[in-house]
């Protein structure tokens, strides 16, 4: 409506008010009525002008129905709302001041096939805006964003403007549906910090955020994918976030969860326990198809004595790949495998032992990079393949060191083990284990221990050592044939120590220089004329890496 049309209608309205006073004959009455009608006339005219000028500048499109992800039925215009942008500097401080320590987010490696590359929010590309997702709901810290998250419906995409979002409680995200995901991520790659504890539902994607468990009463976990208390959880993606805090664990995956992908994150927390804990919690249905890849796991946030970075208890299929474990001053192991219902697939990770246990050991007094111990059943044959174990302190891998009914098993192949020395503090301990297949590994220094002297309960059974390259390694054979035996063949050993004898290792090369180019800088591919190039069984290369 134009301003001229508003004025014309105002004049007609004033005339109607003027005619209203005509029936009254007394002068006082007519004067009062005319004054009153003039006031109404002017007020109506001003109201019409205000509506015409102010309303278009401030009108907003209808808010998307967050319960269904669709527009309400009585709204014709198919637009989502843009809510005001409020910068992070305009927000109030969180009720709990977050720590200022920022652990490193990358770890260098001599070979890009190992460990995590860049992690965190910067990976969340391409940036998402209203132009790329027209149906998105765009929010800022000043809006009722908590209701939007906890009432989102299938197909909802919630984009958060940059800033700090302090919740009042932990937030349960509803379930999406197959091919109708609920997605929460930053608007246009802006920096978003959530001070809360998230409980994702099925078919959720949480990406590109800084999530920190502070400022609320329940900070047990920063994220819990909870298949125990809210029914089964299916297909959750936790991608490219920084996840900090958690009095117990930073991230927990519990009970009936199938299809969770945790990738590209920097995870640091678990004051009392773990960065990441996956377990059934005693339920009949255990977590399954859990992929943990390309994450940086650190243990510096609380700077206190803690447990492991990853612990798995009574779970099904889990892949742990291309992760980096680093910066854990006082913790237990990077990976702790307890009872499982299916083998774990652990490959292409970096275990940076030199940056672990720099202050002391963990809660139970142990240290090292990995421990495997199962109880009350035959152990699963875990696959430990193409990993880099660098300077692990106390133990590299420990196969069931405790007594009782603990037992362990794994196929350990194509790994690189680099230790600063060849003492008891550099041990790869194959103790209470059965059917361990140790093949095609490169071991620089370190101490490979088969059994424990004087303790028959910690003696491995049916261990295979084949096609390995041992460089200045100490090998301690504490088995007691014929009750417990190992098979050793086609290995290359150079300047090794210990008590393993040539008679116990058939078709092997002894004191043969593998011609490794530069051990100090982890250049470990044998030269093209190395005796390792065709020294393995059926002419394969000995060790983890191909020849130059």
Q: Could you list some keywords that capture this structure?
A:
14-stranded parallel β-sheet; mainly beta; disordered N terminus; 10% helix; 3 helices; 548 residues
Description:
It is built from 3 helices and 44 strands. The model is unreliable at 1-9, 11-30 and 48-110 (pLDDT under 50). The chain is mainly beta. Among the domains are: 3-58; 368-548, no CATH class. A 15-stranded parallel beta sheet has the order 1-2-5-8-11-14-17-20-24-28-31-34-37-40-43. Strands 3-6-9-12-15-18-21-25-29-32-35-38-41-44 form a 14-stranded parallel beta sheet, with no helix packed on it. Helices cover 10% and strands 32% of the residues.
Overall geometry comes to elongated
Q: Specify the helix fraction band.
A: 10-25%
Question: What is the typical, i.e. mean, pLDDT?
Answer: 83
Instruction: Report the uncertain regions.
Output: 1-9, 11-30, 48-110
Supply the number of helical segments.
3
Main pleated-sheet profile = 15 strands, parallel
Q: What percent strand?
A: 25-35%
Radius of gyration from the alpha-carbon trace, in angstroms: 33 Å
What structural class should be given to the helix and strand makeup? mainly beta
Number of strands: 44
**Spatial separation of the terminal alpha carbons:** 79 Å
Strand ordering within the main sheet? 1-2-5-8-11-14-17-20-24-28-31-34-37-40-43
